[in-house]
Amino acid sequence: MARADRDLEAAIAATRFGLGARAGEIAETRGDPQGFLRAQIRPQGADQPAADGESAAHRIAELRDLRGARKPGGAAAAGDEPDPVKTAQRLLRENTARDFLARVQLAATTEAGFRERWTLFWANHFTVSANKLVTATVVGPFEAEAIRPHVFGSFETLLAAAETHPAMLLYLDQVQSVGPNSRAASYLQRRGGATRRQVGLNENLAREILELHTVGVDGGYTQADVTEFARAMTGLSIGGAREGPGMAGVPLFREAAHEPGARTVMGVRYVQDGEEQAAAILADLAARPQTARFVCAKIARHFVADEPPPALVARLERTWLDTGGRLDRVAETLIAAPEAWAPDAAKFKTPYEFMVSAWRAAGGAPRQVQHVTPALNSLGQKPFSPPSPEGWPDDAATWAAPDAVVKRMTWAQAFAEAVTAGRDPSALAAEALGARLSPRAATAIARAESREEGFALALMSPEFQRR
Amino acid sequence: MTSPLLLSRRRALVAAAGFGLSLQFLARGAAAAGDDLARRKLVVVICRGGMDGLSLAPPIGDPDYAGLRGAIALGDEALRLDATFALHPALTRVHALARAGEARIAPAVAGPDRSRSHFEAQDVLESGAAVVYGTSSGWLNRAVESLAPGRKVEALSVGATAPLILRGKAEAASWSPGRAVDAQSRLPGLLQDLYSDDPLLGPALARGLATEAMAQAAMGDMHGLDASAAQRLRPGPEAARSLGTTLAGFMREPGGPQVAALSLDGFDTHANQGAAQGQLAQRLAGLDALVDGLRTGLGPGWKDTVVLVATEFGRTARVNGANGADHGTASTALILGGGLKPGGIIGDWPGLSQASLYEDRDLAPTLDVRGLFKGVLADHLGVDRRALDTTVFPDSAAAAPVAGLV
Hints:
heterodimer, A: mainly alpha, 3 domains, two-stranded antiparallel ribbon, 4 strands, about 55% helix, globular, B: alpha/beta, Alkaline Phosphatase, subunit A, 2 domains, two-stranded antiparallel sheet
C-alpha cells in the first residue's frame, strides 16, 4: 500500500488519529508523525475533563432522593419548598450539561487528540446512555471512573471496570436481577402476594456483554449461555435505602440475591462462589480469541474505514493475542500499521467529531453547552444519549443522510459567522488540513465572497468532512 | 383564484430557485397524475427496542394471559376488539379506526431472525434479508427500485440519520425538523460545485436541498406549524402528532413522497414497563397520536394510504423480575389505512399455554412478517411477485404474501 509523504502523514496524524488539527499542530507533528502519536499513550490513561468531580454514586443518590421527594408522603411537600420535580429536572439538566461541556472543551483544546479519540472509542464501545432516567446524570462520571483510567491498560481490567460500574448496572438493568433460587427470591416470594412484584433474572447485561462488549454476535454463544451468565451475575448491584445514606449508589455484591451453584458459560464450568463467579467469566471472555477479533475489527473500523482492511485487523489481533489484550500495545500497532496511513480519507466524521474539529480549527472551545447541544440534537447525536447499548454508529451511511448534510451546512454557516472574526479563511483551512487540503477546495475558499463564506466552505469541504 | 396546491407548488419552486436547484420532485408531479397507483401511499413505522405485542394488543381472552403477565397484565381497561383481543388503553384512535375497519392486528408475527438481539433483528427487519447482515440495503428501497423501470416512486425517511430500511440504490430523501436554509446564501451552490465529484456528499446535498425546499412548502401549508415550531417539539404525543401531520404534508405535495419510513424509539421495556399507565403506555400514546396525525393530515388521501407498524421482536410471555419483559420472539404488527379490506386478526393465534410457547418463554410466531410486507407491496403498490420473492426479500419464496389486505 502506498504510504503518504511526510507532510501528508502529519496531516493524517492530526486529523484521522487525532480530533482535527489546531493551528500549528500539523507543523509540530511533521518531524515525527508516528512519534507524536506514540507519545500520547501513557499508563495513567486518558485525561479527565474539568467537570465538577461528582461521583456516579453521588449522582445516583441525588436522583433517588429527588424521586423519593416526588412521591406522596415523601419529604418537601410544604408550600414554600421548591417543587421537587422541577428541582430534579434542573439538576438533571445542569449535571449533564456541565459534564458534556467539559468533555467537549477537553476535546477542543487537548494537545493529545489521539489519546482522546482512543478514549471516546472505548466510551462508545461500553455505552451507557443518558436516554434512561436512571442513567441521565451518570454518563460523565461513568466515563471518568470506569473508562478513562483504563484505556491504555489491559482489556480485562477495562472490561471489569465498565461492567461492574453502577452506571452500567443501572443502564442494563442488572441491579434488578435476582437469582430465582436465591435467598432473596424465596424471602420475597414468601412475603409476596401483596406487592404483585415478581422477582427474577434479568438477562440484559449478560446478553449485551456477550454480543456487544466481548465475543460479538458471532462469538459462538447460545441463549443458554446468556441465561447462565445472567445467573452468575446475580448479586452485582448498588446500595439503596436499606444500606444507609453513605452506601447509596455505591457498587456492592448482594450475596442473598446471587443464584447458588456452578454455572456453565460457553463450555466452561464455573464453580466459584459469589462475585468471584462473574469475575472469572468476564476474565475468560476478555481472553477469548473471538473477543480479540471482534474488538480489533471495531478499532480498525473506527480509525481507518467502514470496511477496514483485513490486514490491519489481523495486525491488531496478533498484538492483542500476543500481549493478552494490552491496549497500549494495540494502540502502538495501530500507529505503526501502514494501512492506517492510506492517503485517502475514508472515514466520514460523526457530528460530534465534525463540531469538535471545527472548534479546533477555529481555535478555542465552546463556553456554554448551548453552543453545541442544539446542533448535535438536530444532527442526530444527542449529548451522552446513543439510542441503544450498541452506541453511536460508526459509518458514513448513517451520518451522511441528505438532511444531515444540509444541517451541517447551516451549522457551518452560523459557526463561521460567529468565529471567523476577520481572519483569513485560506490560512485557517491550511492550518486545519495541511497537505490534505485539495487545490479545488483551496481555490473555492480563496474565491469566497466573504471571510465567513470562505471558512464555512473550508468546514464543509469534502476533506474536512472526512478524516 | 389560485388553488392551494398551485400556491404551494410555486412557493416550493421559489425556494428551490434560491438554492440553485431544479426541484425534481415537483417537476414530475403532473406526469404521474391520473395514475391510480401513483396516488397510493405507504408509511412504515418501526418501533425500535422490541415492542411488547402482548401489551399493544393484549389477548385478554386467552386463559393463560393474566397469569403469565402478572403486574403488567391488562384487564377491563383494555379496548376490546373481539372475544380474545383488545388494544392497549392508550390506543384510543387506533381502536376507533379498528372499529371502522381501518386497522387490523397481526398478533404473532416475527422475522426470520431468532437471535433476540436488537441489532440483528432490526437488521433483518429492515434489510429484508433471510439472514442477518445479508444485505446492506433495505427492502423498502429495493421495492422502490423494482418499480423504477415503470414509474418513479419518491421515498422519504424521517429522522436525522438514514434508516437501513430505505438505504440502497434508489434515491431516498431524508428530513427532520430543523433550522431553515437561508435562501439568499451562496453556500449551497458553491458546495454543490465543490461536491460534483464526491459520490457521497454530492447526491446527499442535492437531495437534502430538494427536500428542504419541499419542507418549506409543506410547512407553509399547515396551520401553525413552521420550522421553528417543529424544532421546539418535545417528545410526547403532541410531538408525535405533529410529526404525523408534517409527514402527511410532505406526502400531499404534488410529486411528494409516496413511500415513507420513520422510527419510534424506547420500546425496550426490561423494567417497570407499566400496564394501563407507565412507560410503555406513553410510547403507545405516541404511536396512537402519530397515526392520528397522519390520518388527519392526509385528509382524503387516507383512503389511498397504508400504514404498517412493526418491531424487531416481541418480549417474553412471562413478566420478569423487574415488572418488565425480556427479549422475546413473536410480536404484534399493525396495519392501518382508509382502504383496508375488513377482516379479523391476520395470521393465527398460537395461544399462550405452556406447550405452545416458543422455547418455553416467548409467544410463538405463526406468520413471517415478510409475508405481511409482501402482501402490502404487491396489492397496494403493485410490486411483482417475482421481485418480492427474490430481490426485495431475498430467498423468501416460502413466506407467501398475505393477499387481500387492501
